[in-house]
Amino acid sequence: MLTREHRIAILLHEGVKGLHGKTGLSVLRYSEASVVAVIDRDTAGCSLPELTGISRSVPIVASVQEALAYEPDVLLIGIAPSGGVLPEMGWQEVKQAIDAGLSIVNGLHTFMATHPDVPPVKDQQWIWDVRREPSGLTVGRGQARSLDCLRVLTVGTDMAVGKMSTSLELNRTAQQRGLRSKFIATGQTGLMLGETGVALDAVRVDFASGAIEKFVMEFGPDHDILHIEGQGSLMNPASTATLPLLRGSQPTHLILVHRAGQTQIRSFPDFTIPPLPEVIRVYETVASAGGTFAPVRIVAIALNTGHLEEDEAQMAIEQVQITTGLPCTDPIRYDANLLLDAILA
Q1: 3-state DSSP assignment of residue 11
Q2: CA-CA distance, 227 to 213, in Å (whole number)?
Q3: What is the pLDDT of residues 190-244, one digit of tens each?
Q4: Three-class SS of residue 265?
Q5: Measured between alpha carbons, how far is 239 from 231 in angstroms, rounded to an integer?
Q6: Backbone dihedral angles phi then psi of residue 324, each to the nearest 5 degrees
Q7: Residue 168's Cα: distance from chain center in Å?
Q8: Residue 147: how many CA atoms within 13 Å on its side-chain side?
Q9: Quick check: 327 and 300 in contact, CB under 8 A?
Q10: How far apart are CA 35 and CA 49, in angstroms?
Q11: Which of 13, 96, 113, 128 is the most core-located residue (most Cβ within 10 A)?
């Protein structure tokens, strides 16, 4: 629904430097649409490239009212608060945007198009509630194992560690090498970027693996490699998405994504992330289900080092390689060639 012609303001309060801004930051990093303003009261007036490392010169302002000076026509909600609930101040910003004639892109669990507190849109305005379950879904049947294409699923030690970014970088690298490669979106951000797929956490659990299987079966026959965006983590007590992704995609390869130095589950600090070799063993065991499904291996580690200095990042990567015996790199800081080499080896 978003095109290059749209002029987007991203609502990103407490998300530029905080923990809940991955949607907005990913749109800034990957979207071809024109982003004209970022709204974040905490960093208003600061340099976006200096704060995020994203080479996109977009002004940061404190409110929707200030963003209107840059003539946006879409307000995109770029934060993902815990539980998908927008704070009251955010609701007021959305109402101001609609009153000013902006359309809304909403990736939260709460639908806005039919919400009683959201004012009705005018002509040429629209509200896109991204997290909606598609119609016509069925249960999974394990059909993807019949495909000849490679199916690469990113899995993580926690939520929000970089699974989507890793899959996007792998897809771009594969395409640059001439492979018929396709990214399958499984979350609201990927869909906002214009990729094909489904917001998996909007799908009833009985149909979750079937929803993934549907898209893998649709695109698998015409591609050499599919990059399925990972969601959640088997280590996180709140996560339910990883298992249907494993079952629906029937992956041929896994890439483990981890944030360097993280030892506890971010939202549940009393839960400890196991050592990476143990995490690898768990994922490979669950993926094969004791032999019910085909054996699948984690072939490389994507390490998120965005919070580290260059020498620290290099040391962290080297340590992971020693600990796991697997290739390791940060595909955002460097590139995804090492990961793709491990897949194609």
Answers
A1: strand
A2: 13
A3: 999 999 999 999 999 999 999 999 999 999 999 999 999 999 999 999 999 999 9
A4: strand
A5: 8
A6: -100, -20
A7: 9
A8: 26
A9: yes
A10: 14
A11: 13
DSSP string across 124-171: T--EEE---PPSS------GGGG--SEEEEEEESSSSSSHHHHHHHHH
What pLDDT, on the 0 to 100 scale, is given for residue 83?
60
Length of the chain in terms of residues written: 345
Q: Are 321 and 277 in contact (CB under 8 A)?
A: no
Report the alpha-carbon distance of residue 148 to residue 225 in Å, rounded. Answer: 9
Q: Which residue intervals of the chain are DSSP H helices?
A: 22-30, 48-52, 64-67, 88-99, 163-176, 188-192, 208-219, 242-249, 276-288, 310-324, 337-344
Please say if the pLDDT value at position 90 is more than 90.
no
User: Taking a C-beta distance cutoff of 8 angstroms, is the pair 161, 262 a contact?
Assistant: yes
Report pLDDT for 334: 97
Q: Strand, helix or coil at 89?
A: helix
Radius of gyration of the chain (CA): 20
Tell me the per-residue pLDDT of 254-295, one tens digit each, with 9 for 90 and over: 999 999 999 999 999 999 999 999 999 999 999 999 999 999
Query: Residue 68, exposed/middle/buried by CB under 10 A (0-12, 13-18, 19+)?
Result: middle
Gap between the Cα atoms of 132 and 294, Å rounded: 32
Q: What DSSP designation does 229 have?
A: P
Q: How far is CA 202 from the centre of its chain?
A: 14
Please state, in angstroms and rounded to a whole number, the distance separating the CA atoms of residues 338 and 331: 8
Distance of CA 242 to the CA centre of its chain: 13
Helices 208-219 and 242-249 pack at an angle, to 10 degrees, of: 40
Q: Is the Cα torsion angle 155, 323, 289, 157 positive or negative in sign?
A: negative
Give the pLDDT confidence of 7-66 residue by residue, as tens digits: 999 999 988 987 788 899 999 999 988 999 999 999 999 999 999 989 899 999 999 999
3-state SS track over 323-343: HHCCCEECCCCCCCHHHHHHH
8-state DSSP, 119 = P
How high is the mean pLDDT of the chain?
Answer: 94
